[in-house]
Amino acid sequence: MTKKQKGMPRGAVTLLITLAAIMFVACAIVATVLTRMNADPEEPATQLETSRQVTLRIACSPEKAELLAELAEQFGETKPKLADKRTVVVETFSLVPDEMVAQAESGAFQAVSPDSSLWLGEIDRNWYATSGAETGLVGDTARYMISPVVIAMWQDVATELGYPGKEIGWSDILQAAEEDGLQWSHPSTDSASGLLATLAIFYVGSGQTRDLSEAMVADPDTLAYVTAVEKSVKHYGEGELAILQRVQEQGPEFLDAFVVQEQLVIRHNLTQPNKLVAIYPAEGTLWEDHPLALLESVDRSDGERQAFQMFKTFLLSRAVQEQLLTEGYRPSDLELSLDGAGSPFGAENGVDPSRPYTTMQMPSSTVIKVVKDVWLYTKRHANVYLVVDTSGSMAGNKLDDTQDALRAFVDQMQSDWDRVGLITFASDVKEVMPLTQLGEGRGELLGSIAQLEAIGNTALSDGVALAVGRLGALDDSERINAIVVMTDGRENASRTRWQTLAQEITATQNGETPVLVFCIAYGRDADYRVLQAFAEAGGGFASEGDLETIQALYETLSTYF
Amino acid sequence: MAKTRIVFIVLIAFVAAIVGVSYYLARSGQEITLTKPEPLEVRIVCALPVEPFVQEAARRYNAESHAIEGQPIHVTVTPMDGLVAMGRWERGEMDPLPTVWIPDSRYLVELVNATFKEQRGRDIFLTGGEYRARPVAVSLFCWGIWQSRDDVLQAKYGTEVSWTQIHDAATAKGGWPELGGEPEWGYFKLVVPNPHKNVGGLMAMVAAAGEYYQRTDISVADVTDPEFQAWLGELMGAVTDFSSLGSYSVENLALFGYSMGDGGQLLESELLVNMAGIQTRWVEPMVIRYPQYITWFDFPYTIWMGDETTALEKNAALEFERYLLSPEIQQLAIAEGLRPANTEVPIDGADSLLVRWQEQGATTVVPRATSMRSPDRDVLLAFLRWFDLNVYEK
After folding, report:
1. What was the ipTM of the complex prediction?
2. What residues of chain B, 188 to 227, have a C-beta less than 8 Å from chain A?
3. Interface contact B95, partner A, CB < 8 A
4. pTM of the predicted model, to two decimals?
5. Where in the sequence is the domain holding A250, given as residue range(s)?
6. CB atoms within 10 A of CB A468
7. CA-closest candidate to residue A285, choices A376, A218, A351
8. B258: distance to nearest CA of chain A, Å?
9. Same domain for A249 and A297?
């Protein structure tokens, strides 16, 4: 008898493996079929993605855009999920507050974090006006950090004014500008620090610290004071962070003093050898309170609300609040001491955590609007020459985009009292339009821009020299005198030597009518070295642009006037 | 081989069964789920000053897995100012409908109840019986003033703080130097919450009217009196900011310090709970003074009695109310600077904020007996209308 083999025969084992494989394939088919049958046939793939995550887009003011982006990334690293297991993604992007107000109803973002709650009021006022709704667009709101508006000043300049023993105010700045040639700047009223500084100047001009009314704003004595203060402004600028960056690049020669939030003074002093001090104006100041607010439009979902709550809680968490403190903000967590260990608040960084002692009263929205309008009249007006390359290399898209950018520049110059002229250079130089007050010549200027044609060589220096000569002959010390130069090529047709011209521009800086020069190097072939020499000589700066950025560059430069 | 065949047939049958059952379920739209009883949601809309207390109590309650008739109870708390909630009730904007409303004061319940009584012909919030509104904690208005400013005011006006003195200080043309204070303090800055965001703002105006007329009952005629309006206008002119973030006034005062406000009539619990933060952030403390007429806030736990919620949901709400009033949970209220509603719970324990801040003027026994009477709807509306027309731009 043959002994019966134990276990299954080889054939049976093979059969079982085959069956297991069949079963696996069958299950896979079943799973696939079920998934397809349960999926909504009308739902595109991207919405399936959305069903797994909730994205909260937050528009934030430029000076903290980098910080908030970093915090959003840190928040993402915590793998935040809603109760229904959907992932929460927070995306932040930079937007100037005026644009936040303008775009709040567009649905492009679900939350905002401007530099001041002043703008939240503007958002709601627009909303009430357009929707007729009973409740505002601004929903749940939180403050996660604050910073007072101060006058940042180089330590030696402040010492000359009596710091730290003497209380320095806006009136001292005016006096120093008039008598000692102090060069200072504040941003335009499009940003909180610019608007708050302007309100403060109107308050001081009216002799009040509260109850600023339309009548007080329009009072001739107030206007005379504000005009005098504004005449001492070297130039305005695109925002407090940009001004600080210019100051860091160019040092004390760029400005003696400028208006920023306290945090930027700390930020500068933590990394730079030349120290700034924060002057808390004696007459009072205002705060940038950095609110985070959800916009409650009709399509706001519960998921977005929960995502907002989660990010808000994250920003208010102890770890983040400590991080904000080290960045130089005053955190909203009151348990964190400003003068404790590890805090950057102190005399070594030019700030005093016990200040400010008093604030000015926030006027009504009507008064704020009047202040913004009147400021366009009282601000230091400008004589600006646009010096534009129309050589052959500019033909095509380059010229088209430049024309768009020049139009945008003219549109952004809101004050009708500013003067703008247009000079083109190719093989020859042509004054297409002399300096013309925008209130009268805006249309004509736009028409001239539309007529530009590209042909010939690049007489860059001759073009700039003509503008310098015209401004010199005008000898208008009441206004900002400036040139905005743009070229895409290299000097090859001028009779003027660029080195000599740069010296001439430098020489104007110590006179009554210094000429400010801003330059745009358009494309890779532009002679950046020469442009930078002009900009340095003229106390401005040179920037590189291309087809994508040319318009934004011109718009940015318009904020300096 | 027969054994192999059996295994083969069993496997094929198994696969076929999986495919068949799955296909049937997919066609019929059913899901394979294990049934679990749905939790009973107790949705509470809660006034801002008691929200941290109720929120923490809800967190503990949910963690303890309470149930009623076999169904688990889950409590959610939504913070909302009493006046904002009143507007939403009346406009039918409460969605989803709350099971419970805890407003700042009982009179808000009465106002909303009156509106619903007109619509439904019966009380929707009860004042008697098992489901009646009961306070979960209480607090009151008191003056909160920075120490240095209080010293100056006491030297000028004596130890009693009143709206009359504050009006005098607020209208001093020369600001603090005229009152005997420092020039860098600027003018006297009054703190009053935005009445559209915080019921405390409205109640501060009612309290000011009480002292102006020297009585506790204010009428519409009092509010519309031109002389009173001029007086009130001067008082409100000393407020620095009625911005959209005006709901949490003591928090603002603590955050922005004396730069934004010298003092104001504020909720005792909020002052107490922020006192430590104020001392950490600023170089001087605040002091508490009790006013001539007391304005009480009783935070009533009010169960919605409409048909929109089931009897079981109402009973679940009642369960949580009992939990809130238990001595252990009432301690949480004390930790938030509130006075407990359960009279068996002592308020002079070591953890009491009233005891901790006694040196700053806090007292466990309120030194006044006269209370402001609850204003009626017309008086509130008259104040709001005056505020909108004269102070605040929407």
Report:
1. 0.80
2. 189
3. no
4. 0.79
5. 147-287+341-376
6. 24
7. A351
8. 6
9. no
